[in-house]
Amino acid sequence: MSSPAVAVPSRSKPAASKAKANLSGAPVRRLLAPAVIFMFVWMIVPLVMTLYYAFRRYNLMMPDVTGFAGITNFKLMFIDPTFWDSLINTLVLVGASLVITVSVGLGLAILFNRTFVGRGVARTLAIAPFFVMPVVTGLIWKNMLFHPVYGLLAWVFRHLGLNPIDWLAQYPMLSIIIMVSWEWIPFALLILLTGLQSLPEDQIEAVRLDGANRWQEFRHIVVPHLGQVLYVVVMLESIFFLTSFAEIYTTTSGGPGTATTNLPYYIYQSAFFQYDIGISSAAAIGAVILANIFSIFLIRFVAGNLNAGSRR
After folding, report:
1. How far apart, in Å, are the Cα atoms of 200 and each of 43, 56, 134, 203, 224?
2. Buried-most residue among 149, 235, 254, 272 (CB within 10 A)?
3. What values do phi and psi take at 67, rounded to 5?
């Protein structure tokens, strides 16, 4: 008596489905390829040119003096006191602006996450500075707010019986930090408010039923929930703060002296005032390295604090 034939499942179905998925994604990849190639070329060509000129003698005022310079440009950069001033100013600007934007943005996000009369109008006004171009930001603060004679702050000081302050001359770095922070607080507000609105209400209600106060609720529920959001805010803002240029260019021009000269403005001065493309390229490479070091340090620092907070 013959046994009935048992159907063996075909092993080619997974392979066929995988091949079908690859074929279905091929048109998408073909459509994306031109944009990806363009962006790759757009980024890689300036980087390669910067690396090339960083190791060559190339001064626009001495076009005949060319050739391989090795690490001479880097040596000249490192013995330049202006470079070290610009490096310190860059770190101060980035650190202070990050503290202000994240803390104020988080406070405003918590405020706007509540319901109150006029919340929509207040949100619009709080977000508006983010859409102002950096050049316009510098001109507004320089001529309308910080001006020692015609500025709004000078008018307020005079009506209070105080002497007006020449902010850009007496407190130049503080003035730049205020401008940059005013510009980027709305970004932190938007991202952090989005993170707060995704926080489940049942978690808040549970900790409140357990008798947690506002600080414990914020520390053990809100901050761990905003961990990934804080990553995004800190990373993106640190990159933009490292490249701040327009606010300095339109207000202090790096002065008084080198009080507000940061790395981007040092690169600009080396290229367009001293016409030394080699040193400016070397400084640009240093700025890229600094940005990567700063980003890695911030990621580990924020991650360590968030993990320690969640364990507590």
Report:
1. 41, 58, 37, 6, 13
2. 254
3. 130, 175
Closest CA to 86 of 310, 304, 226, 279: 279
Q: Where are the domains of the chain?
A: 24-68, 72-311
Residue 302's CB: how many other CB atoms inside 10 A? 17
Residue range 183-235, pLDDT digits in tens = 999 999 999 999 888 887 777 778 777 777 778 778 878 888 888 888 889 88
Backbone dihedral angles phi then psi of residue 58, each to the nearest 5 degrees: -155, 100
What's the topology of domain 72-311? MetI-like fold (1.10.3720)
CA distance 191 to 154: 34
| Per-residue pLDDT reduced to its tens digit, 52-92 | 999 999 888 888 888 898 899 999 999 999 999 999 999 99
φ/ψ of 98, rounded to 5, equals: -65, -45
Across the chain, mean pLDDT equals: 86
Q: What are the beta bridge partners of residue 68?
A: 56
251 with 141: CB under 8 angstroms? yes
Mean pLDDT of 86-105: 95
**Of 237, 242, 273, residue with least CA distance to 255:** 273
